[in-house]
Design brief:
Layout lengths: L2 H34 L6 H17 L1 H4 L9 H22 L9 H23 L16 E3 L4 E3 H23 L1 H11 L1 H6 L4 H23 L11 H14 L4 H22 L6 H12 L10
Antiparallel strand pairs: 1-2
Helix pairs in contact: 1-6, 1-9, 1-10, 1-11, 2-4, 2-5, 2-9, 2-10, 4-9, 6-7, 10-11, 10-12
């Protein structure tokens, strides 16, 4: 195989691996914004919290409760972490955000920004700002796979496939099922939906929890790849907002497709001009805003 083609394919795979996290996080943001009209700036902090919860379940929970042998590993955490972060997100919605729905959305953004600072401060105080490796990489996902053009880590391949499945399932539930139709109807015309006996406030709280649970799941998936750090969400949230803007604010399909595509573009850019890899996403955002302000998949006003 031509070395240049081999390099492009290899960087494309590594970029796709980053795109997984762009897609998962922007999907959660799109769910919350598209259905609830809330710009959740705390999404990056909840992603970070997901990684830390996974770390604490494995390394700290046992000693805290006097059971030193207890280590909750990756597979149980794959279920527990999204649930715990979703529950935390529902508490934020119920006791903080719900009071602000009648005001300008900027207040919700400022509140979630405050939540971000509080969470980062708490984790920095307990764990300091440096990264901590996640020690519970599953044995079955260690090693590499020969893709023909590169040896690719088995765990990263699992993350790509698993995330594609999760994104498709979420899109299908919201866009193609009766549950998704009720969610959309409940947020667009809550009084009409209440007339059918549906508890709209509960539905809104569960939707917010679902979106934040996706952030927690992404954090868990990232933990074995990157160091678990209080700043890992802060480094990513600006890119995620750019992905959501390019895909179209609130567009589920736009968030998923754009997330994966921008990961690929970022990776391939490194082959031709590596210094531009960190800015190509923002350059594309500017172009899209000038040509199509509602985003690639957004509805035209």
């Amino acid at each position: 195989m031509d070395p240049t083609i081999r390099l492009i394919l290899a960087q494309g795979m590594l970029g796709l691996n980053n795109g997984v996290f762009y897609a998962m996080l922007s999907l959660g943001l799109a769910v919350i914004f598209g259905l609830l009209n809330v710009v959740n700036f705390a999404h990056g902090a909840l992603y970070m919290a997901g990684a830390f919860v996974a770390l604490m379940l494995y390394s700290y929970l046992g000693p805290w409760i006097g059971l030193d042998w207890l280590h909750i590993g990756f597979w149980p955490a794959l279920i527990l972490v999204p649930i715990l972060i979703a529950c935390f997100g529902m508490l934020i919605e119920r006791f903080l955000l719900r009071w602000l729905y009648k005001f300008d959305p900027i207040y919700s953004l400022l509140l979630t920004f405050g939540v971000t600072l509080v969470l980062q401060g708490l984790f920095i105080n307990f764990f300091n700002a440096s990264g901590t490796p996640y020690p519970a990489m599953p044995e079955s996902l260690k090693g590499v796979v020969n893709l023909g053009f590169m040896m690719f880590p088995k765990y990263r391949l699992f993350v790509i496939v698993f995330s594609i499945v999760v994104c498709f399932v979420v899109w299908y539930i919201i866009e193609r099922t009766a549950i998704g139709a009720r969610l959309r109807a409940g947020t667009e015309n809550p009084e009409l939906v209440k007339a059918f006996g549906i508890n709209v406030p509960l539905m809104v709280m569960l939707t917010f929890g679902f979106g934040t649970g996706l952030a927690g799941l992404a954090g868990l998936l990232a933990a074995p790849i990157y160091s678990v750090s209080p700043l890992m969400g802060a480094n990513l949230i600006i890119v995620i907002f750019a992905v959501v803007v390019i895909g179209g604010m609130g567009s589920i399909m736009g968030a998923v497709v754009t997330g994966f595509a921008l990961g690929l573009i970022e990776g391939v850019t490194k082959v031709f001009y590596a210094p531009a890899a960190n800015t190509v996403i923002f350059l594309l955002m500017v172009i899209v805003l000038l040509v199509r302000p509602n985003g690639l998949f957004g509805r035209q006003g």
